[in-house]
Design a protein that fits this description.
By secondary structure, this protein is mostly beta strands. Helix content is about 15%, strand content about 40%. It has 6 helices and 23 strands. The strands form 6 sheets. It has a 7-stranded antiparallel β-sheet, with no helix packed on it. Strands 17, 18, 19, 20, 21, 22 and 23 form a 7-stranded antiparallel β-sheet that branches. It starts with a strand and ends with a strand. About 5% of the residues have low confidence.
């Protein structure tokens, strides 16, 4: 079992907020993202303790290969870890964005696209405000209309908006327009990719007084213009059982809400597993080792782990490729 030192990211849209997790035990102003597990080049997380303390995530992959990530995953991704796990505290509205598919990204000269999901952790905003986010189109538009709406600052009018509640899940396949609103507090699971096309940024300026670059042309090539009736992932959570909420070619994610011990069996799974505690506390026991597991903890289980026992009153996400 591996825990990593999180990478705390200061962003343009960050405010004077503290991400309320135990590993941020000092006041960190203007921090908007905590990258929990990352194999992104030049932004790799480092093992926090144990015999491999100080090693980067991709160093672990290159040393352990299929023993860490699974045979199929190692053949598919090589020495780059395939998932990026974040906590995001949106102190201001994030820019309206879209990510390309792998196919579109390749045409545009990028290594890969990005598919992701959000699990909402509740509100980090003031009590009387209701955080919202955008996910998907609510009306049919053409690429030409999209460009006109960006130019005339009306693109938000075409987007589906959702009030955010704890436990909400939003799947964001490549091509779906999306944005996190002020006060939203989410866990993000995504492909290892930093390809993001900024569609609209509310006319905000950076520290030098310049508008941030918009990627209107690349975004127009990437957007899936299909309109769906509902973009929130609907699911019924059962206590002391795993509830699968997302499955796609890049990751599978389930939610667990436990108040009694449970042993998770991975003997037939040829993949690493990541467990992300989103509420409560408990312990994880695997391979002769027991570690604390509480809100804010993100733990990587190697593909060689056959089972893990979870004890305590804890809600967590389970994700793997």
């Amino acid at each position: 079992m591996y825990k990593f030192e999180p990478l705390l990211k200061q962003t343009l849209w960050g405010g004077d907020k503290i991400i309320p997790f135990k590993h941020l035990d000092v006041q960190m102003e203007n921090v908007g993202e905590s990258w929990e597990i990352s194999g992104v080049k030049d932004h790799e997380t480092i093992v926090a303790d144990g015999p491999d303390k100080g090693k980067s995530l991709n160093q672990l992959v290159s040393e352990q290969k299929e023993l860490l990530v699974g045979a199929d995953n190692y053949q598919r991704f090589g020495d780059e870890f395939p998932l990026l796990i974040k906590f995001i505290d949106a102190c201001q509205d994030l820019s309206i964005q879209v990510h390309p598919s792998d196919e579109t990204a390749h045409r545009q000269g990028k290594q890969r696209g990005k598919t992701e999901m959000w699990y909402c952790l509740g509100s980090a905003s003031e009590e009387n405000t209701k955080p919202k986010l955008y996910n998907g189109l609510k009306q049919q538009i053409t690429p030409e209309q999209y460009k006109e709406m960006v130019e005339h600052d009306t693109i938000i009018d075409a987007l589906a908006q959702y009030e955010v509640h704890e436990g909400d899940v939003f799947f964001i396949p490549a091509g779906r327009i999306h944005a996190i609103g002020a006060g939203c507090f989410v866990t993000e699971i995504q492909q290892t990719s930093d390809v993001t096309y900024r569609i609209y940024d509310y006319k905000r300026k950076d520290k030098n007084g310049n508008y941030r670059e918009l990627h209107t042309k690349e975004a127009a090539e990437s957007i899936n213009y299909t309109v769906l009736p509902n973009y929130r992932t609907e699911y019924q959570l059962s206590q002391n059982e795993g509830t699968q909420v997302v499955t796609c070619p890049y990751f599978t994610t389930a939610v667990y809400d436990l108040n009694e011990p449970m042993t998770l069996d991975y003997s037939e799974l040829d993949s690493f597993v990541i467990l992300i505690a989103v509420k409560g506390s408990g312990t994880l026991s695997a391979d002769g080792k027991t570690i604390p597991f509480q809100m804010g903890d993100t733990v990587l289980l190697p593909a060689t782990t056959k089972e893990v026992k979870v004890e305590g009153t804890v809600k967590f996400l389970e994700t793997y490729v």
